[in-house]
Amino acid sequence: MRQKLIEELCKASRDDGRIVLLTADLGFGVLEQFANEFPDRYFNVGVAEQSLIATATGLAEAGYVPFCYSIATFASLRGLEFIRNGPVAHRLPVRIIGIGPGMDYGFDGLSHFAVDDVGSLRCQPGLTIWTPSDEADVSTQFKSVNNFAGPVYMRIPKSSVKCNTHRLSKDSGIGAKISILSLGDAHPIGESIHRRVAEFESDVSHQTVNLLNSNLAHVVQQHLAKTKICIVVENHYVVGGLSSMIAEVVANSALNVLVIPFGVESLPIGKLGSPKYLSQRFFTDINSVILNVKFELNLKVGESFK
Amino acid sequence: MWENAMQVLAQKIRSKVLEISYNAHKGHIGSALSICEIVAVVASNAEGIGTQNTSRDRVVLSKGHAALAWYSALEQVGVITTDTLKTYMCDGSLLGTHPDPELEGVDFMTGSLGQGIGYGVGAALAGRLAKDERRSFVVLSDSELNEGSTWESAALAGQLKLKNLKVFLDLNGQQALGKTKDILPTSAAIGAWEMFGWNVSRVNGHSTSELHQCLETHESLGTGPLIIVASTIAGKGVSFMEGEVKWHYLPMSEDEYGRAVDQVDRELESLKMISDLS
After folding, report:
1. Sheet of B165-171: strands edge to edge?
2. Structural domains of chain A ordered from first start
């Protein structure tokens, strides 16, 4: 998926001389295409994420469109204050590419996990978080995302799993009684939950969320108009990310919806393994979610909130 | 004659700093008085300040807490009006303790130390990419040498050989709670700039002619980014403020203001007389 993103970036750069790529000394086997084709617009700033964002801010103020490349947690958290005081405060089109959402980096451990990046960035005014679900999303969405006037955080999985789920948008219409929303790369888990729920409840829908910005609250509010239970799936802590955002919309709009978060429940240390293994260890237990849903349905959902 | 005019400008800025900070009952006076000559030289040299010209020179007051000195310089060179300057610390003003990017003449918001030099590096790199003559001026506090991010940017600028980057290091030896040598002696690492490929000049930071000459020399002979290590005195020009840490924070009483402005204005008159004679 990283390669697909760089392919799209190269395509855009052929027509747009404002694009510059900065890396904090990461991207082996990924960035060569850009570096070879645009050597004058490619800079390795060293292992220096604060400098990465600050330099990009100076470039963007002058009219350039800098892309900053690193592992997601380094790109987002190491330079967080620089993002806030730089591209956010100055409303500049800095694009921050963060590779490896959630526990994508498996055996590399918590130091490499981006389980709190969305929570840290989604409160920044004017900043868009883009989380494509698969390579097809990268191809179809890159151009429009790159047209945003403000800063964008691009949360890109290392590899792509084809996503057959519809993307949530203003045209998605009203969701089902049980609505499942998956953030970007979390769609395979969302699909599993969808299958399990569909075994006992036919009025269930599943959408992926690819863009978090100021427009999303309105889209979610419309989508959940008839929903009773919303299961939010994300490769992120269950606090601060998409589920928290959905809960805010529900509370602010006085919707009668139970929000069930599904994500990283506890500090992911003490066990190393593949992303699949780690998800079994640290993610919400899918069986407990199914039980919770059944319990709420048996209570004639809605009455329990009166 | 030109050199003396620059010194007069610096002293006018110093006088404004006192007047405006007294009226606003606000501190950060010592830091602002420390850089009056530096901002006078920057404001006189930077082209296109306050315009939207893409290829204008960029100015970053990385030590944002000394913003009043930069506001006063902007007023003196006609970028903002005297009435605007007088809104300092008023509700709804664009002139706060730290620079707001929506104020004319402010290219970047600063206030969090260690960030401004990185903006300056990006601005200089933009000039290289655009293949134009723009320069990037950064005013850096010696306390910002405590910040690791300053060194990230210093190394990058040296590596990129950004000759159009000009940094003024305000080496006054003081920071918020004491002397830099007692708190974190990062000023001892001045030699590192040379090792990173910078052109390093050491001058009296209260001599506008020495500061200006550094820029001129660097234009003709420089090979990499320039750092002017400007030895300064916090609170410069007001005897009871010089070298006193408390003036990083305290506002002036009426009596203190009277004594301070008397000293500064007498020096200003003296400089003007020299100017007239020459």
Report:
1. B58-61, B136-141, B165-171, B226-231, B199-204
2. 2-156 (3.40.50.970), 166-305 (3.40.50.920)
